[in-house]
Amino acid sequence: MTHFHDATTCQSCNQRFTSVFCKAKQEFIAEINEQKVCNVYKKGQTLFNEGSYPFGVYCINEGKVKLSHLGDDGKEQIIRLLRGGDVLGYRALLSGERYSASAIVLEDTQVCFIPKELFISVLKNDAGLAFEMMKLLSDELHKAEVKLTHLAQKPIRERLAETLLFIKETYGYEADGVTLNVRLSREEIANLVGTATESTIRLLSEFKKDGMVELEGKKIKILRQKELIRTANLQD
Amino acid sequence: MTHFHDATTCQSCNQRFTSVFCKAKQEFIAEINEQKVCNVYKKGQTLFNEGSYPFGVYCINEGKVKLSHLGDDGKEQIIRLLRGGDVLGYRALLSGERYSASAIVLEDTQVCFIPKELFISVLKNDAGLAFEMMKLLSDELHKAEVKLTHLAQKPIRERLAETLLFIKETYGYEADGVTLNVRLSREEIANLVGTATESTIRLLSEFKKDGMVELEGKKIKILRQKELIRTANLQD
DNA sequence: CATAAAACATGATAAAAATCATGTATAAGG
DNA sequence: CCTTATACATGATTTTTATCATGTTTTATG
User: Fold this and answer.
1) How many CB atoms lie within 10 A of CB A73?
2) Looking at the C1' of nucleotide D18, which residue has the nearest alpha carbon?
3) pTM for the model
């Protein structure tokens, strides 16, 4: 079972230099620190569910979370992968709507919760944070638009290669320098790529046959990153 | 040729109650009014090009604009359709990057340009506007995520029906109450749906045969909206 | 540790969609 | 108005991808 340090203060948080909050004024950080509620979620648990109302935002201290949508036919589409330092739940909060996606923990994860009213009031009084927030939203929007274009125009083989590279960018490698530092089921990878599970399994086998990856259960090792990049056919 | 009223002031602009700027403080509106530059663009002209640096944001007074991405193989993907009251160019500006999409005018369009420095400074000093901006970004992000899910999970037939409904939501009908109030080529519709042009042509013919639409060159009439909604298979 | 359930794997088949080919209509330009 | 280019249309074919079927492996659980 994963061990976490005791929940400390926002002022000494590991993520204080990487999260959006790093640009917030000290006085507001102090206030957030007082009102935040930290919790540890176990693998498979849910931070929030699509369709319910947001009461605040979540700040990941350490761990991994997936954000996923249910399609009209109930099929999961993974929208984003999150790690320590990432904030989530702000989209629905800002739009004033229900959550349009569910946040599910991929491995034991430590999360701080910041109440809605506080978050909004800080945002309204701290132009620096507001600006960071707009940047964050802009970046997410950009990523979504690129993904949209790839989804519309690229074959599954390229999208799978791209997804593997994306997983690596997000969670990095384990100590050995080749194993992706997350365990995702084939179905989850498929739901990230936007394809059928069988197609993903088949293509992963091909990638293995081609020597690009090595598969050991849910462990995926990237053996030839350059070839994967070529397979992904990325221009930008 | 389309006729436009003389460019008036922001204070008397038709869009002053619908655009994001409606929540900005009067003093800032006045400043924007002084520095804005209004222009009329003709069909096919470009407001800005993917890859170039943003110098400000564009506010559509009247007209229609498409925002499109080029895929890695050079194929257009239409990301958004814009109309009077919409603002564009803020995404790249906020991220501090080059434009990731091009804005091309679909019909003669009147646009006001607001310089980067002014926009940023107003945004930093007017929490109300900043908040509206975050809402706008959140809404766009939401739309992009839904589109992404549909692109991944829905067949082209459903996506085309959805796209026709989307065009209707965006630009509405002409005076007759059935003709979509925009002229898009089949290729543009395909680039909105995310499919091959031939597939779009074929399916539009089917929709016509089924009595859902009527086609007269680039004029598209929606005859049975309910059936279209059913065909789009929308749950949410 | 046995047993059930879930996840993985792979072949066969069907369905969906893209591409190619060709012809027609429509719009643009001299 | 004629010519040329472009857009539209539709059939034939191929490619891609999903689905179905079935077996194997792994994982969870009493």
Assistant:
1) 9
2) A196
3) 0.95
